[in-house]
Design brief:
By secondary structure, the protein is α+β, with helices and mostly antiparallel strands. The protein is built from six helices and nine strands; from the N terminus they run E-H-H-E-E-H-H-E-E-E-H-E-H-E-E. The longest helix is centred in the C-terminal third of the chain and has 13 residues. The two termini are 25 Å apart. The mean pLDDT is 93.
Protein backbone atom coordinates (compact mmCIF):
# COMPACT_ATOMS: atom_id res chain seq x y z
CA UNK A 1 0.00 0.00 0.00
CA UNK A 2 1.35 3.41 -1.00
CA UNK A 3 1.44 5.71 2.04
CA UNK A 4 2.59 9.22 2.73
CA UNK A 5 4.33 9.20 6.13
CA UNK A 6 4.93 12.53 7.83
CA UNK A 7 5.19 14.45 11.06
CA UNK A 8 1.74 15.90 11.68
CA UNK A 9 1.04 19.62 11.51
CA UNK A 10 -1.72 21.65 13.14
CA UNK A 11 -3.79 21.26 9.96
CA UNK A 12 -4.01 17.50 10.71
CA UNK A 13 -5.47 17.82 14.23
CA UNK A 14 -9.19 17.54 13.45
CA UNK A 15 -8.74 14.52 11.18
CA UNK A 16 -6.53 12.75 13.75
CA UNK A 17 -9.08 13.46 16.48
CA UNK A 18 -11.87 11.97 14.34
CA UNK A 19 -9.82 8.81 13.74
CA UNK A 20 -8.90 8.62 17.42
CA UNK A 21 -12.50 9.00 18.57
CA UNK A 22 -13.62 6.03 16.43
CA UNK A 23 -11.25 3.72 18.35
CA UNK A 24 -11.08 5.27 21.83
CA UNK A 25 -12.41 2.95 24.56
CA UNK A 26 -15.11 5.41 25.69
CA UNK A 27 -16.55 5.85 22.19
CA UNK A 28 -15.68 2.73 20.17
CA UNK A 29 -18.48 0.43 19.06
CA UNK A 30 -18.60 -2.52 21.47
CA UNK A 31 -18.24 -5.05 18.65
CA UNK A 32 -15.03 -3.32 17.48
CA UNK A 33 -13.23 -3.55 20.86
CA UNK A 34 -11.93 -7.06 20.12
CA UNK A 35 -9.96 -5.59 17.20
CA UNK A 36 -8.09 -3.15 19.46
CA UNK A 37 -8.81 0.09 21.25
CA UNK A 38 -7.13 3.18 22.70
CA UNK A 39 -7.52 3.94 26.39
CA UNK A 40 -6.31 7.56 26.62
CA UNK A 41 -8.67 10.38 25.65
CA UNK A 42 -7.22 13.45 23.93
CA UNK A 43 -8.43 16.98 23.28
CA UNK A 44 -7.54 19.31 20.44
CA UNK A 45 -5.15 21.15 22.80
CA UNK A 46 -3.37 17.91 23.73
CA UNK A 47 -2.70 17.24 20.04
CA UNK A 48 -1.63 20.84 19.42
CA UNK A 49 0.91 20.53 22.26
CA UNK A 50 2.05 17.14 20.98
CA UNK A 51 2.74 18.71 17.59
CA UNK A 52 4.11 22.09 18.63
CA UNK A 53 6.11 21.19 21.75
CA UNK A 54 7.04 17.54 21.20
CA UNK A 55 6.99 17.09 17.41
CA UNK A 56 5.58 13.69 18.35
CA UNK A 57 2.53 13.01 16.20
CA UNK A 58 3.25 10.89 13.15
CA UNK A 59 0.65 10.15 10.49
CA UNK A 60 0.11 7.87 7.52
CA UNK A 61 -2.02 9.12 4.66
CA UNK A 62 -3.53 7.06 1.87
CA UNK A 63 -5.35 8.82 -0.98
CA UNK A 64 -4.89 12.09 0.95
CA UNK A 65 -6.78 10.74 4.00
CA UNK A 66 -5.20 10.05 7.41
CA UNK A 67 -5.50 6.30 7.96
CA UNK A 68 -3.13 5.90 10.91
CA UNK A 69 -1.21 7.78 13.56
CA UNK A 70 1.42 7.08 16.18
CA UNK A 71 2.10 9.33 19.14
CA UNK A 72 5.46 9.66 20.87
CA UNK A 73 6.62 12.17 23.44
CA UNK A 74 8.73 12.87 26.47
CA UNK A 75 7.61 11.61 29.84
CA UNK A 76 7.19 15.24 30.90
CA UNK A 77 4.45 15.65 28.28
CA UNK A 78 2.63 12.46 29.28
CA UNK A 79 2.69 13.12 33.03
CA UNK A 80 -0.51 15.18 32.81
CA UNK A 81 -2.36 11.82 32.84
CA UNK A 82 -2.23 9.73 36.05
CA UNK A 83 -1.34 6.51 34.20
CA UNK A 84 1.82 8.04 32.77
CA UNK A 85 2.80 9.70 36.04
CA UNK A 86 2.57 6.21 37.58
CA UNK A 87 4.78 4.83 34.79
CA UNK A 88 7.42 7.51 35.42
CA UNK A 89 7.38 6.71 39.12
CA UNK A 90 8.03 3.05 38.23
CA UNK A 91 10.16 3.52 35.11
CA UNK A 92 13.32 2.13 36.71
CA UNK A 93 11.52 -0.93 38.13
CA UNK A 94 12.68 -2.87 35.08
CA UNK A 95 15.89 -2.69 33.08
CA UNK A 96 16.18 -3.17 29.35
CA UNK A 97 19.21 -4.72 27.69
CA UNK A 98 21.13 -4.05 30.90
CA UNK A 99 20.15 -0.36 30.99
CA UNK A 100 18.14 1.47 33.61
CA UNK A 101 15.27 3.29 31.95
CA UNK A 102 14.98 6.98 32.82
CA UNK A 103 13.00 10.02 31.70
CA UNK A 104 16.16 11.17 29.90
CA UNK A 105 16.98 8.01 27.94
CA UNK A 106 13.46 6.86 27.05
CA UNK A 107 10.19 8.19 25.73
CA UNK A 108 6.60 6.99 25.81
CA UNK A 109 5.33 5.64 22.50
CA UNK A 110 1.63 5.30 21.81
CA UNK A 111 -1.11 5.24 21.35
CA UNK A 112 -1.06 4.11 17.76
CA UNK A 113 -4.20 3.80 15.69
CA UNK A 114 -4.83 2.24 12.29
CA UNK A 115 -8.21 2.59 10.62
CA UNK A 116 -9.83 -0.83 10.17
CA UNK A 117 -10.24 -0.19 6.42
CA UNK A 118 -6.45 -0.55 5.97
CA UNK A 119 -5.52 -3.07 8.67
CA UNK A 120 -3.48 -6.07 7.61
CA UNK A 121 -1.79 -4.12 4.79
CA UNK A 122 1.45 -3.10 6.51
CA UNK A 123 0.24 0.35 7.60
CA UNK A 124 0.95 -0.29 11.29
CA UNK A 125 4.51 -1.41 10.61
CA UNK A 126 5.18 1.60 8.38
CA UNK A 127 3.85 4.26 10.76
CA UNK A 128 5.61 2.58 13.71
CA UNK A 129 8.95 2.44 11.86
CA UNK A 130 8.62 6.06 10.74
CA UNK A 131 7.84 7.25 14.29
CA UNK A 132 10.69 5.18 15.74
CA UNK A 133 13.18 6.65 13.26
CA UNK A 134 12.07 10.19 14.11
CA UNK A 135 12.33 9.62 17.87
CA UNK A 136 15.67 7.75 17.61
CA UNK A 137 17.30 11.13 17.04
CA UNK A 138 16.36 12.09 20.62
CA UNK A 139 16.12 8.88 22.69
CA UNK A 140 17.85 5.48 22.72
CA UNK A 141 14.84 3.60 24.17
CA UNK A 142 11.13 3.41 23.47
CA UNK A 143 8.81 2.37 26.33
CA UNK A 144 5.08 1.72 26.14
CA UNK A 145 2.28 -0.21 27.79
CA UNK A 146 -0.61 -2.31 26.54
CA UNK A 147 -3.71 -3.29 28.45
CA UNK A 148 -3.64 -7.08 28.80
CA UNK A 149 -7.20 -7.26 27.45
CA UNK A 150 -6.05 -5.64 24.18
CA UNK A 151 -4.82 -8.78 22.44
CA UNK A 152 -4.69 -7.31 18.94
CA UNK A 153 -2.35 -4.50 20.03
CA UNK A 154 -0.18 -6.91 22.02
CA UNK A 155 0.20 -9.27 19.03
CA UNK A 156 0.97 -6.39 16.64
CA UNK A 157 3.62 -4.93 18.92
CA UNK A 158 5.34 -8.18 19.90
CA UNK A 159 5.13 -10.03 16.56
CA UNK A 160 5.16 -7.37 13.86
CA UNK A 161 7.53 -4.78 15.34
CA UNK A 162 9.24 -7.00 17.93
CA UNK A 163 8.82 -5.00 21.14
CA UNK A 164 9.99 -6.86 24.22
CA UNK A 165 7.84 -7.31 27.32
CA UNK A 166 9.97 -6.11 30.22
CA UNK A 167 7.42 -6.43 33.02
CA UNK A 168 3.74 -6.46 33.90
CA UNK A 169 1.99 -4.06 36.24
CA UNK A 170 -1.41 -3.11 37.64
CA UNK A 171 -2.97 0.32 37.55
CA UNK A 172 -6.52 1.44 38.30
CA UNK A 173 -7.86 -2.14 38.45
CA UNK A 174 -6.34 -3.06 35.06
CA UNK A 175 -3.39 -5.28 34.16
CA UNK A 176 -0.76 -4.07 31.69
CA UNK A 177 2.33 -5.19 29.83
CA UNK A 178 5.28 -2.78 29.84
CA UNK A 179 7.25 -3.09 26.62
CA UNK A 180 10.45 -1.59 25.25
CA UNK A 181 12.84 -1.55 22.32
CA UNK A 182 16.06 0.12 21.26
CA UNK A 183 15.44 2.97 18.83
CA UNK A 184 18.65 2.78 16.82
Amino acid sequence: MQLELKVATLEDVSEVLALHYRYQVDSICEEDKADGFITTAFTEQHLRDLIQIEQGLFIAKHNNKIVAYAMSASWQFWCQWPMFAYMVEHLADATYLGNSLTVDNSYQYGPVCVDKSVRGQGVFEQVFTFALAQMSQRYPFLVTFINQTNGRSFQAHTRKVKLDVIETFSFNHNEYFKLACKTG
